[in-house]
Each structure stands twice: as C-alpha cells, then as structure tokens.
Amino acid sequence: EGPAAAHFYRQGYSMFDDVVFSCLEGRVKPEDCFYRLALDRLNVIVQKNAVFIDDNVDYVGAAEELGINAIRFKDLAQLKRELMMLGINVNGY
C-alpha cells in the first residue's frame, strides 16, 4: 500500500463512492486502462459522472482527454472548492 493510499484511508473520507489507487491495482497512470478500471469499478458509463483527483498535471490531463472530470490537487481548500463547483457536497469534510 502506497503512502498516499494509506493516508487517504486513515482520513475516512466518506464523500467518495469508491477510490482507485494505481499502486494498489497494479496499473500505471497515465495509461487508459487505469482510468477505464476506475470507471468500471464505479459502474459509470458517462465519464462526466466521475471525478479524477491527482497532483500530477499529466495524470489529470490524461483523465480529461478521456472525458473525465479531473482536478489537479493543490490543497484541501482548493479541492473542496472545485468539488463544490461540480455539485459535490463537501460540507462537514
């Protein structure tokens, strides 16, 4: 388990329906198969119903190229703002 995944799970974020960490899935970003795996796990056909979050601009760009909502993580306040702009309730987090 990678450090980012371990930290994420310790936080107990319940706002997410599911999370997919490439380090836990044996996949490599920015390969399409990683993003398609995430969409399959979420049972999402329309990519705009999913949000990809990462701090790496190349990974965010690859998700956007597939039509997935993507946010480049800079800090928690910025992430919350951008999630709210997508209509995601982040109150209490």
Structure in words:
- By secondary structure, this protein is mainly α.
- The chain has helices at residues 3-11, 22-25, 32-42, 57-65, 76-85, and strands at 51-54, 69-72.
- A two-stranded parallel sheet has the order 1-2.
- The longest helix has 11 residues, at 32-42.
Short structural summary:
46% of the residues lie in helices and 9% in strands. The chain is mainly alpha-helical and 93 residues long.
Number of strands: 2
Q: Kindly, what is the distance between the CA atoms of the first and last residues, rounded to a whole number of angstroms? A: 24 Å
Content-based structural category? mainly alpha
Order of helices and strands: HHHEHEH
Q: How many H/I helices?
A: 5
Gross morphology = globular
The Rg value, from CA coordinates, equals 13 Å
Mean pLDDT over all positions: 86
Task: Considering the chains and any ligands shown, give keywords for the structure.
globular, mainly alpha, 93 residues
Q: How do the strands and helices of this protein lay out in sequence?
A:
Blueprint: H1 3-11, H2 22-25, H3 32-42, E1 51-54, H4 57-65, E2 69-72, H5 76-85
